[in-house]
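Retro notes (design track)

What went well: tokenization of the new backbones is finally stable.
What didn't: we kept losing track of which sequence belonged to which structure.
Fix going forward: every design gets posted as structure first, then sequence, in one message. First example under the new rule, 161 residues:
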């Protein structure tokens, strides 16, 4: 659904090749560790699920033009992560991170299960870079966002080695 599983599998495949020591190490004081990036992905998906729930409850029918979500992976364009999705040290191990990611993915899939595509396309909330996005695009965005940060984690690992 929305390419989420394939993109998550890429992230988890990369994580399999990372030691806990590598995962906890920051390449620089102002940069996230791999474990912090994974926590950011967890927090982000959690926030998106919450925002989708709120948009569905409000029921405001609104549409937004489709956005070029594939551009999310362009790491030359920087977006400052909102405070609510910045890592706080919630995960101490890679297993903690995987379990957190599993829980948020289950919440995402549970939320969109049995939702009409039409309903998801007729509710919106804003994205910091793309502007108004419909709920179907937000769901798809989760996967693209993970690929963006997969590249970041690869960069972190390369800097550590």
């Amino acid at each position: 659904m929305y390419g989420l599983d394939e993109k998550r599998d890429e992230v988890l495949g990369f994580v399999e090749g990372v030691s806990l020591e590598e995962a906890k190490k920051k390449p620089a004081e102002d940069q996230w560790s791999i474990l912090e990036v994974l926590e950011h992905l967890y927090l982000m998906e959690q926030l998106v699920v919450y925002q989708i729930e709120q948009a569905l409850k409000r029921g405001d029918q609104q549409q937004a033009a489709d956005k070029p979500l594939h551009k999310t992976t362009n790491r030359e364009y920087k977006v400052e992560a909102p405070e609510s999705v910045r890592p706080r040290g919630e995960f101490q191990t890679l297993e903690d991170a995987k379990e957190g990611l599993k829980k948020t993915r289950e919440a995402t899939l549970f939320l969109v299960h049995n939702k009409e595509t039409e309903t998801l396309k007729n509710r919106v909330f804003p994205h910091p870079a793309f502007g108004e996005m419909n709920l179907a695009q937000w769901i798809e965005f989760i996967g693209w966002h993970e690929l963006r940060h997969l590249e970041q984690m690869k960069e972190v690992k390369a800097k550590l080695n």
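Added context from the reviewer: Helices lie at 4-16, 20-24, 34-58, 94-112, 117-121, 135-160.
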